[in-house]
Amino acid sequence: MIIDYQSLFTRVEPQKAIGKIIQFPFTRIIIAILFLIPAATLHNFLYDYFISDLDKPLYYIILNSERIINFILFIISYRLFIKYIERRPAVELSSQKVLPELGGGLAIGGGLVLLMVIPMAVLGYYKISGFDSGGWLLNGVFRFGMGSFIEELVFRLIIFRLLEEITGSWLALALISLLFGLMHLGNDNATLWTSAAIAIEDLLLVGAFIYTRRLWLVWGLHFGWNYFQDGVFGMPNSGMTEMPSWINPTVSGPDWFTGGTFGIEASYLVVFFTAAAGIFILYKAVKKNQIAPPMWRRKKTAAVDGLSG
What we know:
The protein is mainly alpha-helical and 309 residues long.
């Protein structure tokens, strides 16, 4: 079942000035983030004062348990925002198709990583130096799962969705992709090219959300990519190299192919593959009438329909 884009617009039609200010999409972006701050603050407090100094394996047991609780708190916080500010059902968190969409996203994200690892290994650019504890495969699920969930919650369900209410899908897509790329400019080994690559690759993530209008597919894509790239195959994740992984590899070869020290996200081949996949899913979204027009065009259409009625 595809969710119509209009189901994600606020149901409130305020008459007073204060209500109009609250319902303005830019204001709601701020309000939505304020709803999430308590859950984020609680996580940081528990980690800094109770978890960080624990010895392993108790450290990972408590941390991963806390991540599950934190995940639930973020879901509840977002649902409260939707219920009390936008006053509509949170269809973007609908449990319908959660397993096939999340699983499909994980498979596609991991498959795209394999699409790079296999030719790199054949060409001798990717060589396995050793293996770490298999326990990291489980710990990586919690770390990369939670990290990608928060990014998609903020960038897709809040910033993109509310920008889209004003600007329509196409301009919101351009703006969120540019913002997503710029947010990675401060990462280790980042350059203008790596940020441009991230922005282009974000077409796939935005396209997945536009097509389904649910969190699960885009979260699965992001989660699968990060988990297999870093947690399994041990390659840099957007320039970050300090995280442990199951496989300890030696990566060589030309930067245009391997992405160099930033990771395969900076590879010309990955940019091509993800851009092609993003364009394809956006084409599917267009065919399903999932592209929202900008606010001024919707108001003009409504006015014309009112006159003709």
